[in-house]
Amino acid sequence: MTTPPDPTAPRGPVLELLVSTQPGGGPQHVLAVATWLRARRWRTIVAGPHDGALFDRFRENGIETVELATDRFSAGTLGQLIRLVRERRVRLIHSHGKGAGLYGRLVARALGVSAVHTLHGLHFERYGVAKRAAYLALERFLSRWTSVIVNVSRAQEAEGLALRLFDRRKSRVVVNGVDVARLGTAAAEPGEARAALGLPPSAPVVGCAARFDPIKRLDLLLQAAARVPDDALRVVLIGRGTEERRLRELATSLGLAGRVIFPGEILDAARLYRGFDVYATTSAKEGMPLAPLEAMALGVPVLASDIPAHRELLGGASPALVAGTPDAFADALSRLIADGAARATLAAEQRTRARSEFEIRQMLTTVEALYGEVLGL
User: Fold this and answer.
1) What is the pTM of this model?
2) Residue 299 CB contacts under 8 Å (≥ 6 apart), including other chains
3) 195 plus 341 within the same structural domain
4) Are 136 and 225 within one domain?
5) What is the span of the domain harbouring residue 155?
6) How does pLDDT run across 299-308, given as a tens digit for each residue?
7) How far apart are CA 131 and CA 150, in angstroms?
8) Residues 98-126: pLDDT tens digits?
9) Domain holding 303: CATH number?
10) Is residue 208 one of the residues assigned to a domain?
11) In this structure, is the dihedral angle defined by the CA atoms of residues 195, 200, 201 and 206, taken in order, positive or negative?
């Protein structure tokens, strides 16, 4: 007679494999999922580089965290991962990001464990012809060894299907979600947030939190700010990355020196968003961005470049979608800064959308159900 499973026994183990632990959509998504699963009696392990503040946050939340150099390929890292999966008796590897996706699916295939991979955006446009072809071919090949491919937006799923990166039967759309209650409790009041960022109490402020990468087009935001007639406007760019030096030089060349604040990488940056009059995201491409969604949930009006992911985030007919040019952003920003009533109306509409369409519990229960499906629980 078969003994029924003990419902109180921990489930898993599940390994969440990251390519970075810097604050950003992917790692923050994993933090939320791993914390939820731990509370639901799943045994969850997180592995990735110790390159950002979230590495320690995982440990502070009681999640077993292992340092692993998944941001570059080496036989040594592959061996470490094989040993980790064997020693912890991992049953499912869920990878996030390109390098993690390669390591995770190679090891899952070699050891006969289940593999899930999340595509947090499809970014390959800056690759040369040969590198782009190689990347797409590799993703198509690895998808054969993957039980489920998770897409963070319907727009991304449509693109992946058009590129033949995965089979429709393997794809699941799990949009990012936000913990509205936690965000509201943690958020600083506008005056407190401005003081923390070194901003004057009454100047108009546009802000953004992002990785400093060309795909985010933060240079476009600076160019737009330089075209806004109000010389009191301040710009806050939270984050770090390869573009920082160029962005600082550009701010100076545009005559914005002293009006652009670079506070660096801030863990839980959303707590300071209420210090902004407007949150602006100028990305050329996204999967499903988390930071503007957090701003929406906090009642900070968002202006966004008119790209598929932002249409899905804001609603395709939203007046907050802006053509991706400095002049278009400058015009939209000028109008919104000058009109407090318009800001309040937009903020209310976006807050309602964030809370009704992107509440975090739906994301978390969907991921947990997906793991149960893959593991046959």
Assistant:
1) 0.90
2) 274, 347, 348, 350, 351
3) yes
4) no
5) 11-177+360-375
6) 999 999 999 9
7) 23
8) 999 999 999 999 999 999 999 998 988 88
9) 3.40.50.2000
10) yes
11) negative
